[in-house]
């Protein structure tokens, strides 16, 4: 006898509303729209009578205390050094997944995105350094190295089927390597004086995380506790605290306990038992044996998915739709008065960033791919031409999140330089986004036209 599905009185109507909303939330373009909206809101606030109240809010102190222990920072610091650790944690999970099973797992397939990413980091840094050599802006050489993967992928997603799917894959792989490079630059070159006591504590916590991995611990709570301690250790060590997110992510188990075959066998056995204990007409809630089997099925499903996959999926929405928008609101409120714009144009920081992100990324990525092909290193993905690579290289000039993050580190305490740097980042990201979209829309061959 076929059982009917139970629906709450308003459930069907709610599903009709929720399903389109969920589809919208999971679209790549939504991330870009949300970030642009938050950046525009921040710009409006930063150039309105609310600017002073906004600054007061960002500098307000928030403390966490436990007995005699206390950690106190401004709201701005908590967002950039606290919440953004979760962003870096997700970045770390993505890097690990790509290296183990993704586009970076096979040398031949990974070679070209790696070469492109290296060229796309070195050339912008060199252009910026040449323009700012010997000035107080020289410390910002790492700013134009970064690519904002959410924005770049979002713009490419607007082109739909016109762009080969393999080009999108290439851009994602390139951006993942770019993220790893940016994290390395932050850890090595934008670090304060080291406190070796805290650094030693951080190494011990990392060792503890590795032990959890080797013991096969798959529940997130133990990792969360140690990751919190790791963040606190890095906070006192002089190494930027967000790096804790990367190290913690790399210790999360990437393999499920059940293989595909053993999972199918186990679930089949449980389903057979479930049918055996069926009592027609009896609600499941009053059938303890079937309820117990349901719990075992639930546990089996959890063990068939790796902790890395579960955490990446669980954290994607809060990071993408809460943390990064908050970061944009907290960091994009730059002053755009005629005097501020004139000061930025007269200096070399903003022009260096614009040239680095727009021209440097284009030359670095397209040039390194062209050179690699001439040398017989790697091969272009199926359906992708050098014209497509040129469009992707332009989109890689969208720096936004990571570039703003590095700008705050490079010019910490220098409001004028930070303002000029952010002005350059926003201008470069706008130019790169429009140029990349236009190139792929009207200059590069459509996916169906390319042979």
Key features of this structure:
mainly alpha; Na+/H+ antiporter like fold; 71% helix
Describe what you observe in this structure:
The chain has 451 residues and is mostly helical. It has 2 domains: 317 residues, Na+/H+ antiporter like domain (Na+/H+ antiporter like fold); 44 residues, no CATH class. Helices cover 71% and strands 3% of the residues. It is built from 18 helices and 2 strands. A two-stranded antiparallel sheet has the order 1-2. Helix 4 runs antiparallel to helix 13 and helix 15 packs across helix 18. The longest helix is centred in the C-terminal third of the chain and has 29 residues. The termini are far apart. The model has no long low-confidence stretch (mean pLDDT 87).
Explain the layout of strands and helices:
Layout: H1 11-25, H2 28-46, H3 51-59, E1 61-66, E2 69-74, H4 75-100, H5 107-132, H6 149-157, H7 165-189, H8 196-215, H9 220-237, H10 243-250, H11 260-276, H12 288-304, H13 307-331, H14 338-346, H15 349-374, H16 386-395, H17 400-410, H18 415-443
Antiparallel strand pairs: 1-2
Helix pairs in contact: 2-6, 2-13, 4-7, 4-10, 4-13, 5-7, 5-15, 6-7, 6-18, 8-9, 9-10, 11-12, 14-18, 15-16, 15-18, 16-18, 17-18
Could you give a quick summary of the protein structure above?
The chain is an all-alpha fold and about 450 residues long. It has helices at about 10-25, 30-45, 50-60, 75-100, 105-130, 150-155, 165-190, 195-215, 220-235, 245-250, 260-275, 290-305, 305-330, 340-345, 350-375, 385-395, 400-410, 415-445, and strands at about 60-65, 70-75. The model has no long low-confidence stretch (mean pLDDT about 85).
């Amino acid at each position: 006898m076929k059982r009917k599905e139970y629906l709450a009185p308003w459930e069907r109507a709610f599903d009709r509303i929720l399903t389109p909303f969920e589809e919208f939330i999971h679209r790549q373009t939504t991330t870009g729209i949300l970030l642009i909206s938050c950046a525009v809101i921040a710009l409006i606030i930063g150039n309105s009578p609310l600017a002073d109240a906004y600054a007061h809010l960002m500098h307000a102190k928030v403390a966490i205390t436990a007995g005699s222990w206390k950690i106190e920072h401004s709201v701005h610091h908590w967002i950039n050094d606290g919440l953004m650790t979760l962003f870096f944690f997700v970045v770390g999970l993505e890097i690990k997944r790509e290296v183990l099973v993704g586009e970076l797992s096979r040398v031949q397939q990974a070679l070209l995105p790696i070469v492109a990413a290296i060229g796309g980091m070195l050339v912008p840094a060199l252009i910026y350094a040449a323009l700012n050599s010997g000035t107080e802006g020289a410390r910002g050489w790492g700013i134009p190295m970064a690519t904002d993967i959410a924005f770049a992928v979002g713009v490419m997603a607007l082109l739909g089927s016109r762009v080969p799917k393999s080009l999108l894959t290439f851009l994602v792989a390139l951006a993942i390597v770019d993220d790893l490079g940016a994290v390395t630059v932050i850890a090595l070159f934008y670090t304060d004086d080291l406190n070796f006591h805290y650094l030693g504590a951080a190494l011990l916590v990392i060792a503890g995380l590795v032990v959890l991995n080797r013991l096969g611990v798959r529940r997130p709570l133990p990792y969360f506790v140690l990751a919190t301690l790791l963040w606190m250790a890095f906070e006192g060590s002089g190494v930027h605290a967000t790096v804790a997110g990367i190290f913690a992510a790399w210790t999360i188990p990437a393999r499920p306990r059940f293989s595909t075959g053993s999972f199918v066998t186990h679930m089949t056995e449980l389903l057979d038992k479930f049918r055996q204990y069926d009592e027609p007409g009896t609600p499941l809630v009053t059938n303890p044996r079937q309820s117990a089997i349901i719990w075992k099925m639930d546990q089996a499903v959890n063990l068939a998915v790796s902790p890395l996959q579960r955490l990446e999926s669980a954290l994607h929405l809060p990071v993408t739709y809460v943390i990064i928008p908050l970061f944009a609101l907290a960091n994009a409120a730059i002053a755009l008065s005629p005097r501020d714009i004139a000061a930025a144009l007269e200096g070399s920081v903003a022009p260096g960033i614009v040239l680095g992100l727009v021209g440097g990324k284009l030359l670095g990525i397209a040039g390194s791919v062209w050179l690699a092909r001439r040398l017989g290193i790697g091969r272009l993905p199926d359906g992708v031409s050098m014209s497509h690579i040129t469009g992707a290289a332009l989109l890689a000039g969208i720096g936004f999140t990571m570039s703003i993050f590095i700008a705050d580190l490079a010019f910490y305490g220098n409001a004028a330089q930070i303002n000029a740097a952010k002005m350059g980042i926003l201008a470069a990201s706008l130019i790169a986004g429009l140029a990349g979209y236009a190139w792929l829309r009207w200059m590069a061959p459509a996916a169906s036209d390319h042979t």
